[in-house]
Write a structure and sequence with these properties.
This protein is of the alpha+beta class. The protein has helices spanning 6-26, 35-43, 60-69, 125-146, 155-171, 173-184, 211-214, 233-241, and strands spanning 2-3, 32-33, 55-59, 77-80, 91-94, 98-102, 112-121, 194-197, 209-210, 217-222, 225-230, 258-262.
């Protein structure tokens, strides 16, 4: 195996994204750039310089359609809780010719593009907040179940994992993921006036968008290619990052702490 440089990692991930876009265009499946990838498209017209992954999202009905039909011309593989070949409440498309050795998680994989389902949300903001708090609780359990024992920012975090991991694995990470999915789908996308990434919605109520604006598509440039973005990208990025055009301090410019290799 040969270790990949950061630039090579980004090139591999961009190729996965282009493969996904090609399939979605041919099969009339909607997707949008989101999260840090959308921020990168708006602020840098490509990857955030210190970032090393790609995030996209799909309305829940499109997400299911994609997972049921996706076939790659380049050998990429879709993984998800829905397909029963991954235990997270979201999906990813993986390049099996690569291997990622994460320094913080036992969940090894090839280089990937994350795909997050967008679900319906209620109009009442307090209900929205409660949904995200519940999902956040279960997500923390899920992360601890996959974390490498003895790792963490503090001594407490490093040693508590020795106790938590066996209990969480006994309970079942798939079961935790199913609970997150159930919470996220309580308000069907088709009937909702508001939507958001819920299963992996790290920013709480800041994730919420008006469905009418979310479904209105425009274009953004990412690494020299045009990709679809939702029309409410400005309010969405404010909800996630506040003053998103301002660069964060250097100590907050974090990557996924991974080493990636290509199989020879």
């Amino acid at each position: 195996m040969r270790k990949l440089t950061t630039d090579e990692i980004k090139k591999y991930e961009l190729n996965i994204l282009l493969d996904i876009q090609s399939f979605c265009v041919k099969n009339s499946i909607k997707f949008y750039l989101c999260g840090g990838t959308l921020l990168g498209a708006i602020r840098h017209h490509g990857f955030i310089p210190w970032d090393d992954d790609i995030d996209i999202c799909m309305p829940r009905p499109e997400y299911i359609k994609f997972l049921q039909t996706y076939q790659s011309a380049n050998g990429y593989i879709a993984k998800s809780n829905f397909l029963k070949n991954w235990d997270a409440p979201c999906a990813k498309v993986v390049d099996p010719s690569t291997l990622v050795d994460s320094q913080i998680s036992e969940n090894e994989t090839g280089l990937w593009v994350d795909i997050f389902p967008v679900d319906g949300l209620p109009s009442d903001i307090d209900e929205v907040s409660a949904i995200y708090k519940k999902c956040n609780f279960y997500r923390k359990l899920y992360w601890n179940g996959h974390a490498i024992s003895g790792t963490g920012r503090t001594r407490f975090h490093r040693y508590i994992k020795y106790l938590l991991k066996p209990l969480l694995n006994l309970y079942g990470l798939q079961r935790i993921s199913n609970q997150i999915e159930a919470i996220a789908q309580k308000h069907p996308y088709e009937n909702a006036d508001y939507v958001g990434i819920v299963t992996w919605g790290l920013y709480g109520i800041g994730e919420r968008m008006k469905k009418q604006e979310f479904e209105c598509e425009t274009k953004g440039v990412f690494e020299g290619h045009e990709f679809p973005i939702f029309s409410c990208w400005d309010s969405y990025l404010h909800g996630l990052y506040n003053d998103y055009m301002k660069l964060p301090p250097k100590e907050k410019r974090k990557t996924h702490s991974m080493n990636a290799y290509v199989k020879l």
